[in-house]
Amino acid sequence: MLITNYWKNRTAMVLFIAIGLSSGCATFQSQKTAKNDIPMQGQKQISPELREKIATEAQKAIPIEPPLGNLPKVSYGKREGTRAGIKYVYEGDLLGDIYYGKGKLIYSNGFSYEGEFKEGKYDGKGSLAYPNGDHYAGEFRQGKRHGQGILSKADGKRQEGQFVDDKFSAK
Fold it and tell me: Is 102 domain-assigned?
């Protein structure tokens, strides 16, 4: 798509052109930006020389393919370690050494999370099981319960609704 501004009879015009290079036709829409805004549409034959010039200019302006060779790749893996003296096992998607994508994190103290990770934190949809028997299923953002969710307490109580910054919101 080529966007061109031009003036006609002292009225600013904007012309949007989508060109079918193989057919040699230009489909256009124009819109007056001053009074009497009237959208117009149509088709017009364009010369092979103009078609070639537009194709050449478009290739200069628009990158056809992003450089994907340097992006890190997501892989599936298993990691074991210790945090704050508690052993854990992570199994799932990794971006380098960072939890990224879907995975499961289980701590030796009974705490576990299964769901989506982003930049090493709970982010997206998932579920937490707490050592005391509580369970949360819902949305997370930057490692905290955030969004729609359900917290089921071990004593049978239940909080369902919006969580903001890891806290239940009565809204």
Answer: yes
**Gap between the Cα atoms of 82 and 89, Å rounded:** 9
CA–CA separation, 13 vs 5, rounded Å?
A: 6
Instruction: Give me the amino acid identity at 79.
Output: R
Structure tokens at 33: 């930006």
Task: Report the DSSP beta bridge partners of residue 99.
Answer: 94
Write a three-state SS string for 72-119: CCEEEEEEEEEECCEEEEEEEEEECCEEEEEEEEEECCCCEEEEEEEC
**Is 158 inside a domain boundary?**
yes
Q: Which DSSP letter does residue 170 get?
A: -
- Assigned domain for 143 exists: yes
**50 occurs within a structural domain:** no
Number of domains in the chain: 1
Please name the amino acid found at residue 40.
Answer: M
- Give the tens place of pLDDT for each residue, 40-85: 455 566 778 877 877 777 666 655 555 556 667 889 999 999 999 9
Report how far apart the first and last C-alpha atoms of the chain are (Å, whole number).
Answer: 45
Instruction: Based on DSSP, count helices (H) and strands (E) in the chain, helices before strands.
Output: 1, 13
- pTM of the model as a whole: 0.58
| Residue 102 belongs to domain with CATH number | 2.20.110.10
Range of the domain at 82: 74-169
